[in-house]
Amino acid sequence: MDSVPKVAIVMGSDSDYPVLEKCIKILNDFSIETDVTVCSAHRTPEKAADYAKSAEKKGFSVIIAAAGKAAHLAGVLAAYTVLPVIGLPIQSSTLDGLDSLLSIVQMPSGVPVATVAINGGENAALLAVQILGVKYPEIRVKLHQYKESMKKAVDEKDRQLKEKLKLL
Ligand code: RP5
After folding, report:
1. Which domain holds residue 158?
2. pTM of the entire structure?
């Protein structure tokens, strides 16, 4: 491997962390180095800008940005970097995360954010892994294994359900 695959994970508040746990676990399972930071587009705007501006030089390939409510973090980070930014809407308000989803997904032309489902921490991680897989063939091998184990798990659930229905 000519360099270490690294993903930056940024969240708007430490209250977002529970959704990020599975995301971090998946990245760890794929042996991807992570940096986990709390940084808000509204409460710490300078920190957000500095983080995004320096991410490329620090060797990150992808940024995952999780935020809730008026969730501008992913868009603000994307404004300051050419790295791909994955937006993860958090279900943190009375609007059930729809506010976060729309705040993240409705970016103006020129500044894309790849948005995953509300609270979709696992898919945020897997999308980051797939982006890294373009550069690192050994990550692609692990992604094929991941798909295969997912298929086996579904086949097993299908078998168990059929078994259960026979007993009815
Ligand atoms: C957003 O506001 C954060 O991403 C979080 O989802 C939400 C609430 O933050 P706290 O008031 O819990 O710190 O910026």
Report:
1. 138-168
2. 0.95
Indicate whether 22 and 69 sit together in one domain: yes
| 150-166 pLDDT per residue, tens | 999 999 999 999 999 99
Distance 18 CA to ligand 1 centre (A): 12
Question: Over the stretch 34-93, which tens digit does the pLDDT of each residue have?
Answer: 999 999 999 999 999 999 999 999 999 999 999 999 999 999 999 999 999 999 999 988
User: 59 in a domain, yes or no?
Assistant: yes
100 in contact with ligand 1, CB cutoff 6 A = no
Specify the CATH number for the domain of residue 37: 3.40.50.1970
- Under 8 Å CB-to-CB from 69, ≥6 apart: which residues? 92, 93, 99, 100, 103
CA 65 / ligand 1 centre spacing (Å): 12
Hey, whose CA ends up nearest to atom 7 of ligand 1? 68
Instruction: Determine if ligand 1 sits within 6 Å of the CB of residue 40.
Output: yes
Does the residue 16 lie in any domain? yes
Q: Given the CA of residue 40, which atom of ligand 1 is nearest to it?
A: 14
